[in-house]
């Protein structure tokens, strides 16, 4: 029963399928007959399959909590740690995975001690578990694949200077946690995504931005859209804590580097901890003039905090104050901020939304998505009323597709896509439908700010306004995912580290 539990979890058996799972487990138990050999001298407590089973259990546990996940995210967080992060881990899942692990190992140990034949079963299972673990063969694919310079050669460094005579515009970039566009297409989607759709209608919305390998978690979404590259793993054996490292993607120029060179003031405000997942190292290393996070606003928030940090209404209140200050400066600014409210599995609904919105038939997760949209819409309305959106571009995007939650089944039945809209001075409402990636956002932002890009290219991206095909359109998502997952040459270029 223990052995079959992970299979039931991964394939999400339910109803009659669950009965099949139980019967299969019972059948397996009867098949494994054993005898108590009194003269057997092999009473070893060692199991060859112990370590492979533990590693497989780790994979099953991560799958149970986050759903389908990116191997790059695992490697990245092995490097950066989880300081300041608080995944919502459900006790039942922890219990069942632990029970499955312990039950299976104890059963195997009992059989091993009572039947010499299971010594060979133990060895065979150990080899099978190593081969079956997705983390093992994905890591092998990454490290053992032959070098392919395609993506590395495609990389295009962004121009450093705006053309003469270009009027410098401010830009506000809002990373809306897990606010993926697909929410509009599921049951109650029109209500859930009403505010986000309304915001998109005021400018240009791009429909078709897919989530590629190494762009599917918060830091990866931030880096890919601001640097035009996926967050390639640096390697399993590099320094384990970015707080102790001097650089993050130092060999390449990102949006903040380019804008800083053109006289911009750049800031990043995070609803969570500024040091989570290497954010502070990246921000400090790429010329952001100022950064802030939950640690800077604890006194203001008091006990009104969620497990990740600030509620979104508190975050937008502080963002409004910062933008008011920036608007009084004599230089253009680029202000980026990242919300928390839509974080899976249930979201974190702000009290403002509890007071002003009706939840109705929306789930708690849907209500959290709606709440973030409502707060973004209100935030922009206040800025406009105060005259703070003049000569300003506003870009809004989901940082990544939402992770495991109660709507995963509905979402996975659709062609999932990230949200991206851009509005402001000189932008006419339109809808662009094309296959693209998060790193295509980078050249799009540069172009809308007036930068001239040959072929619309910067980083690995191609501007969403350009006629030239981007990498997703050229290779297709599946093939491009494979190229990204095994491209250690690109990793070496981005990190500037021979150990990558």
UniProtKB/TrEMBL annotation:
It is found in: Cell membrane. Gene3D superfamilies: Alkaline Phosphatase, subunit A (3.40.720.10). Its main location: membrane. Residues 169-451 form the Sulfatase N-terminal domain. It is a multi-pass membrane protein. The keyword Kinase does not apply. InterPro entries: Alkaline_phosphatase_core_sf, OpgB/LTA_synthase_biosynth, Sulfatase_N. This is Sulfatase N-terminal domain-containing protein. The chain crosses the membrane at residues 18-35, 47-74, 94-111, 123-144. The keyword Transmembrane helix applies. It comes from the Bacteria. Keywords: Cell membrane, Membrane, Transmembrane, Transmembrane helix. One of its GO terms (cellular component) is plasma membrane. PANTHER family: LIPOTEICHOIC ACID SYNTHASE, PHOSPHOGLYCEROL TRANSFERASE I. SUPFAM superfamilies: Alkaline phosphatase-like.
């Amino acid at each position: 029963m223990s052995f079959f539990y992970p299979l039931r979890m991964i394939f999400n058996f339910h109803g009659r399928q669950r009965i099949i799972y139980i019967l299969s487990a019972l059948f397996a138990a009867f098949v494994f007959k054993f005898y108590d050999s009194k003269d057997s001298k092999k009473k070893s407590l060692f199991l060859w399959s112990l370590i492979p089973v533990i590693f497989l259990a780790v994979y099953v546990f991560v799958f149970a909590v986050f759903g389908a996940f990116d191997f790059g995210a695992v490697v990245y967080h092995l490097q950066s740690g989880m300081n300041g992060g608080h995944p919502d881990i459900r006790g039942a899942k922890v219990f069942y995975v632990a029970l499955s692990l312990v039950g299976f190992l104890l059963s195997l140990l009992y059989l091993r001690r009572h039947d010499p034949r299971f010594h060979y079963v133990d060895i065979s299972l150990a080899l099978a578990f190593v081969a079956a673990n997705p983390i093992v063969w994905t890591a092998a694919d990454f490290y053992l694949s032959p070098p392919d310079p395609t993506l590395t050669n495609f990389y295009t460094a962004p121009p450093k200077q705006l053309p003469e005579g270009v009027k410098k515009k401010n830009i506000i970039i809002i990373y809306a946690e897990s606010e993926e566009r697909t929410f509009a297409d599921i049951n109650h989607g029109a209500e859930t995504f009403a505010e986000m759709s309304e915001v998109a209608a005021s400018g240009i919305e791009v429909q078709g931005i897919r989530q590629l390998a190494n762009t599917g978690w918060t830091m990866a979404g931030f880096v890919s859209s601001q640097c035009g590259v996926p967050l390639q793993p640096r390697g399993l054996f590099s320094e384990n804590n970015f707080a102790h490292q001097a650089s993050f993607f130092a060999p390449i120029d990102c949006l903040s580097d380019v804008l800083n060179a053109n006289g911009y003031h750049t800031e990043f405000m995070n609803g969570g901890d500024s040091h989570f997942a290497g954010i502070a190292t990246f921000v400090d290393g790429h010329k952001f003039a100022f950064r802030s996070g939950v640690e800077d606003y604890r006194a203001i928030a008091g006990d009104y905090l969620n497990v990740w940090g600030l509620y979104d209404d508190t975050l937008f209140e502080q963002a409004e104050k910062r933008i008011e200050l920036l608007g009084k400066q004599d230089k253009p600014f680029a202000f980026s901020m990242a919300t928390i409210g839509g974080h899976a599995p249930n979201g974190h609904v702000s009290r403002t939304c509890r007071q002003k919105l009706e939840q109705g038939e929306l789930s708690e997760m849907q209500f959290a998505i709606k709440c973030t949209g409502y707060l973004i819409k209100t935030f922009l309305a206040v800025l406009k009323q105060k005259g703070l959106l003049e000569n300003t571009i506003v870009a809004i995007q989901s940082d990544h597709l939402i992770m495991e939650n109660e709507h995963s089944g509905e979402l996975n039945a659709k062609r999932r896509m990230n949200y991206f809209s851009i509005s402001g001075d000189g932008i006419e409402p339109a809808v662009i439908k094309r296959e693209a990636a998060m790193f295509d956002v980078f050249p799009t932002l540069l172009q809308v700010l007036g930068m001239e890009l040959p072929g619309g290219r910067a980083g690995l991206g191609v501007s969403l306004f350009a006629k030239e095909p981007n990498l997703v359109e050229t290779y297709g998502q599946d093939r491009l995912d494979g190229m990204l997952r095994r491209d250690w040459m690109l990793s070496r270029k981005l990190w500037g580290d021979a150990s990558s």
